[in-house]
Design a protein that fits this description.
With 298 residues, the protein is an all-alpha fold. The protein has helices spanning 4-15, 19-23, 29-36, 44-54, 58-65, 72-85, 89-99, 105-122, 130-141, 147-150, 153-163, 166-183, 193-210, 214-219, 234-251, 254-267, 274-295. It is built from 17 helices and no strands. Helix 11 (153-163) runs antiparallel to helix 12 (166-183) and helix 16 (254-267) runs antiparallel to helix 17 (274-295). It is elongated and about 80 Å long.
Length: 298
């Protein structure tokens, strides 16, 4: 694996920069020489300034530093998601067992994710494991969620659905929204937080409907218009359009809901937005049952 200073030297040379051009005003020339010989380390603020001059993000620098390999956490997450998409449950079980006792906190969390994906798919009624409960409590205890926590937000929602702790569920939804709002500003969505929020909101809305929290589901419509909508991507806009359609089917104008859903459903045969199309098909049926029950006074 390349060393820290050697990697900076390599990137500097790729850019065709002298040491003076890269480091001037940040560190001394003598310090720079020792740094590139792996004899010194840097503070975070000075590294950030150097990477800015190199036009390399911290995450890309880490990737290059690890000899063009993803961090082990990212690689493990990718393996889990691919195994789940392929419904390769033997592979998921192997990953869960291999990392559940890891010395690294994030790898143990990822093993919990694999465990959860197996359980919610294999079992109609599943119970929490101690690892899931620990993850649940850790996220509940945090006063706000950070970027690394957003990865677990949907996992937290699935655990919340099993717990049926409605006050905690609503508090967690509010925490997710407030936390996302800290990262999405008028300057943009640099950390792609809206991708986390849109997926979270679609799942949260489904859970509120499934748990028959009708008033909370009605009120949730405000979540379909997050701050700074101008930064929503096409896929995120589709998710919120789907949420609007489901809301109309349940609580508003059925015809309006169908009009919102139709363009999305038309994309599914083309292999686009198939997951959202499946959600819409399912909840159009559920909404019909819900309205019939309301008419009967059930």
């Amino acid at each position: 694996m390349p060393e820290f200073g050697s990697t900076l030297k390599h990137l500097r040379q790729l850019r065709g920069l002298t040491q003076a051009a890269l480091y001037d005003g940040i560190i001394s020339r003598s310090f720079a020489g020792r740094l590139e010989r792996n004899q010194h380390s840097l503070t975070a603020d000075k590294l950030a300034q150097i990477l800015d001059r190199l036009a390399v993000s911290p995450s890309e620098f880490q990737f290059i530093l690890q000899d063009h390999h993803y961090p082990s956490d990212t690689a493990l997450l990718n393996h889990i998601l691919v195994a789940y998409d392929q419904r390769n449950f033997p592979r998921l079980r192997h990953l869960e067992q291999a990392y559940r006792t890891s010395d690294r906190h994030t790898e143990r969390d990822l093993a919990t994710l694999a465990q959860l994906l197996i359980r919610i798919t294999d079992q109609l009624h599943w119970s929490l494991t101690p690892e899931m409960t620990a993850l649940w409590h850790r996220l509940n205890t945090a006063t706000t969620w950070t970027l690394s926590d957003f990865l677990w937000a949907q996992v937290w929602l699935m655990i919340a659905a099993v717990q049926r702790d409605i006050p905690q569920l609503l508090a967690g939804i509010a925490k997710m929204h407030a936390s996302c709002d800290r990262y999405v500003t008028a300057d943009g969505d640099a950390f792609h937080v809206l991708a986390y929020r849109s997926s979270f909101d679609l799942l949260a809305f489904q859970i509120l409907l499934t748990l028959h929290r009708d008033q909370a589901a009605r009120d949730f419509r405000s979540a379909f218009t997050p701050p700074h909508q101008e930064y929503l991507t096409d896929s995120q806009l589709l998710i919120y359009r789907a949420c609007d359609a489901i809301w109309e089917w349940y609580f508003g104008d059925v015809a309006a809901g169908t009009a919102l859903a139709q363009p999305i459903l038309a994309l599914s045969p083309l292999g686009i937005a198939t997951d959202i199309g499946e959600v819409l098909t399912l909840y159009r049926r559920k909404a019909r049952t819900y309205r019939q029950s309301q008419q009967k006074g059930v």
